[in-house]
Give the backbone structure.
Amino acid sequence: MSALLAIDDLSVEFHERGELTNRPLRGVSLEIAPGEILGVVGETGCGKSLTGLATLGLLPSGARPSGRIVVDGQEQRLGEPSPLRGTAISIVFQNPGTAFNPVFTLGAQMDDVLLRHRGLDKKERRARVLHYLEQVGLPDPERVYRSYAHELSGGMLQRAMIAMALVCEPRLLILDEPTTALDVTVAKQILDLVLSLRDRFGFGVMLITHNLGVVREVCDRVAVLYAGRVIETGATAQVLSDPRHPYTRGLMNALPARHRQGSGWRRSPGRCPRAWSGSPAAPSPSGARWRSTRARPRIRCRARCPGIPGTPRPAS
Ligand SMILES: Nc1ncnc2c1ncn2[C@@H]1O[C@H](COP(=O)(O)OP(=O)(O)OP(=O)(O)O)[C@@H](O)[C@H]1O
Ligand SMILES: [Mg+2]
C-alpha cells in the first residue's frame, strides 16, 4: 500500500543574522500508511513537534527545512503552509488550553475552520460541528458549541480539539502530546477515543508523545527520535519487546510499570544534547550525541552516534 505520509531525509536549521544557530532535525525519514497510527516518541527537545509542524509547513520563522515530504501523493513545498491543511491534514497542537482563542466560543472557532476550508452554508456547518462534538464523546454538544475554552475541563478541551481537527474529515491527523496534560483516567479515555475514531474514519495518525506507555496502548508502529534523528523504527510490539537501540531500552526502563514489576526504574543519565549548536565553522556533534547521556559510553559511542546492527548508519 502506498504511504499516506512519506518524510524523507527531513532536516531543519535555524539561522540568525545569517549564522547557523541550531540544527534540531537531521535527516528524519518516516512513513505512515492509510489507517495506521505511528507513534513519534522521544524526550523533550528531540524534534517531535518540529517534525509534525514541518509536515504542515508551519515551522517557526527562521527555520530552513530541507528534504522531501509527500502527503497523499502530493509533494509539499517545504517551509510554506501546506494547502492540504484543513482538508487532507489536521493537527491538534501540543497545548489545548492555549490552542483555542479565549474570546470566541468553541462553536464559532470550529465554524470558522469549516468556512475557510469547505464551501458549506451556515446550517450545514453547524450540523457538522455538532456531529463531531458528539463523535468525540462530549455529553452536551449544544452547550459545548456555546462555551468558551475556560469553561471546559482539560479532558473536554482535548476532545473539542480533536473534534475541531475532524470537522474537515482529514486523511492524516497529527496529534501532538494529546494526553500529556491529563490525568491517567482521562488520558486513557482520549487514547481509546483516538483508536475508535481511527477505526471509524480510517485516517492515518502521527501520534507525538514522550511516553512509551502511550505508544504501547495505541500505536501500530513507532519511530524513536533522538537529538533530531530517527534512531529506531518498527512495529510497536517488536520494538517494545526487543528494542535494538540502547536509547530505546533507556526509555523503556523509565516506564513506571517496569518499576512496579521490580526491574528497577532507571533514569538515563545526563541530558539529551541539542542536535547542533554553534557557529557554522564548529564541527557537528557526531560523536557526542549519544555518549553524553550514557553513564559508561561504549567505544563506538565515542566515535559516532550508534546505529542499529544490520542497518545503515545515518550520516553525522
Ligand atoms: N524557533 C526556534 N528557534 C530555534 N530553535 C528552535 C525553535 N523551535 C524549536 N527549536 C529547537 O528545536 C528543538 C526541538 O523542538 P521540538 O519542539 O520539536 O521538541 P519536542 O521533541 O517536541 O519537545 P517537547 O517534548 O518538549 O515538546 C528544540 O530543542 C530547540 O532546540
Ligand atoms: Mg513538542
User: Anything to note?
Assistant: The first strand starts at residue 5 and ends at 16. Residues 276-289, 292-303 have pLDDT under 50 and may be disordered. Residues 184-201 form the longest helix (18 residues). The radius of gyration is 20 Å.
